[in-house]
Amino acid sequence: MKIKKFGEKIPQSLFFIIALSALSVLALITVFILIEGVPLISKVGVFKFLFGMKWAPSLGQYGIFPMIVGTVFVTTGAIILGVPIALCCSIFLAEFAPKKISNLVRPAIQLLAGIPSVVYGFWGLIFIVPFIRNYMGGPGLSILAGSIILAIMILPTIISISEVSILALPPLLKEGAFALGATHWQTIRGVLLPAAKSGILASIILGIGRAVGETMAVIMVLGNAVALPKSILDPARTLTTNIGIEMGYASGEHQQALFATGIVLLVIIMILNASAQYAIRRK
Amino acid sequence: MRNISPKTAQKIAMAGIWAGGAVTVGILLLIVIYVLLRGIPSLSIDFLFTAPKGGLSGDGGISTIIVSTVYLIGTTLIILVPVGIGAAIYLAEYAPSNKFTGVIRYGVEVLAGVPSIIFGLFGFALFVTALHFKFSILSGALTLVCILLPTMIRTTEEAIKGVPQAYREGALALGATRWQTISRVVIPAAMPGVITATILCIGRAIGETACLYVTMGGSAAMPSSLLSGGRTLSLQVFYLAMETRALDKAMATAAVLILIIIIVNTFTTWLAHRFYARMGGNV
């Protein structure tokens, strides 16, 4: 009897230890990136690092403000272009699409989520970039190109989470509104969307997180110049692409500066994720 | 007249919402069809089985790239699948509903939101540098395990939870211990779900680029061991597009990627449907 009990304990403790893996990876990531990055930030100074205008590793100048601005511009563009389409599509799937059509659209969205980011980047490079260069001016490799590609890439995230939060609403809400004589659109705008607000908000925040974190596709279409962009047709560089481009040849202090860029990125992502979780839980 | 009648508003909104669905599917079709139409003509058996020349010409095929990709994904799965299943078993079957379980779950959730390039920085600091695995397939695989852990754990946990409670009660009623119930009844019943989770991870592994860009080195030569550098299909698209003029080869490789993702998605959807139909039908 005792042996049997002991045999029961082994798998339980073993699986407990394995279950700690995700938590340990998260801790290790934080520790490693802090160890590599903090010395440089403390050497340069937090303020000069975050708001410095000049990034010239060969001269020992590490200011990432242009990258922060680049990230904000590209992400904002992606949200402006992507969110309306994504919200319409999620309402379409949750409320209007006949079963036959939604059975086609859902796998399509899954595929959109599964296409590798380099394929988006490559398609952007040979389809979007020349289009912008020829019809709107500038080098083509630009904030606008980056925003368009990211807008497409965040569609699946926003659509699937918003759709789920609309579908999760109790049917009574809709029936009540209909019974009061509201049209379908009045019901959606006045009852369903406000009720699903927290889920929709979370989906948008997670979409922002995805856009901020994307690297390869953005490297391919953004032009990567380290300068404050003056218009959406100018090239720019984001925090992620700064790391991606220079990691291959950086060493010493320069490499530390890239880890320091990673710290800023990680902090932004953590804040975004925490707010998404908060938005979901507050309900 | 500023007031639009509810009926008109309904019509306008309907048009917008249907357009949202149509635009989403339209963008997907545009990308997929564009890449396939332009990529498939340069695809041939020769292309798949010839080694790339490397360098700036971009000549040759993708045979060594396919081998590297298979090595990478094989190594990743050997580590990922047992760890993922173990953690999922703990969370689905053993975990008490207390604060610490909440922390473990939160860790999985947060890890899922960390951008690929941050995992890359971490993999570079830990596997490439500290553990001296150098830029290699092994470093890339270990980094991929960290990225895919949340997907594997969550999907497997869903699958285990999908097994009807009656299975467990039946086994326990026959005098089986908890571990016997889990290992001989629950896991076998959840197997199709576990396979779905694994294939889902393969799909994501094929699409990952940023983290591998800074941990795998990017050699186009045939890998001789896990400590050789390597290039995945996604990385090959990136290198061809950014460093060579062989855009047709890049397009062909991108087409291969899209075809793989379509196959993976179709297969997982089919498997998941079968699994849940069976679990549902047996209750």
Fold and architecture overview:
The complex is a heterodimer of chains A (283) and B (283). By secondary structure, chain A is mainly α. Chain A has a single domain (48-282), classed as MetI-like (MetI-like fold). Chain A contains 13 helices and two strands; from the N terminus they run H-H-H-E-E-H-H-H-H-H-H-H-H-H-H. In chain A, helix 2 crosses helix 13, helix 4 packs across helix 10 and helix 6 (117-135) crosses helix 7 (143-167). Chain A starts with a helix and ends with a helix. Chain B is mainly alpha-helical and 283 residues long. Chain B has two domains: 6-41; 43-282, MetI-like (MetI-like fold), CATH 1.10.3720. Helices cover 76% and strands 0% of the residues of chain B. Chain B has eleven helices and no strands. Chain B is globular and about 65 Å long. At the A-B interface, helix 1, helix 2, helix 4, helix 5 and helix 6 of A face helix 1, helix 3, helix 4, helix 5 and helix 6 of B.
Write the topology of this structure:
The complex is a heterodimer of chains A (283) and B (283).
Chain A: H1 2-19, H2 21-44, H3 46-51, E1 55-56, E2 61-62, H4 65-96, H5 99-114, H6 117-135, H7 143-167, H8 171-179, H9 184-195, H10 197-213, H11 216-222, H12 239-246, H13 252-282
Antiparallel strand pairs in A: 1-2
Chain B: H1 6-39, H2 45-49, H3 63-94, H4 99-113, H5 116-130, H6 137-161, H7 165-173, H8 178-207, H9 210-213, H10 233-243, H11 247-282
- What's the gyration radius of chain B in Å? 23 Å
The averaged pLDDT of chain B comes out at: 90
| Strands of chain B, total number | 0
Under CATH, the topology of the largest domain in chain B is which?
A: MetI-like fold
- Helix and strand sequence of chain B: HHHHHHHHHHH
For the record, the count of structural domains of chain A works out to: 1
Query: Tell me about the biggest sheet of chain B?
Result: none
Percent of residues in beta strands of chain A: under 5%
Tally of alpha and pi helices of chain A: 13
Specify the structural class of chain B. mainly alpha
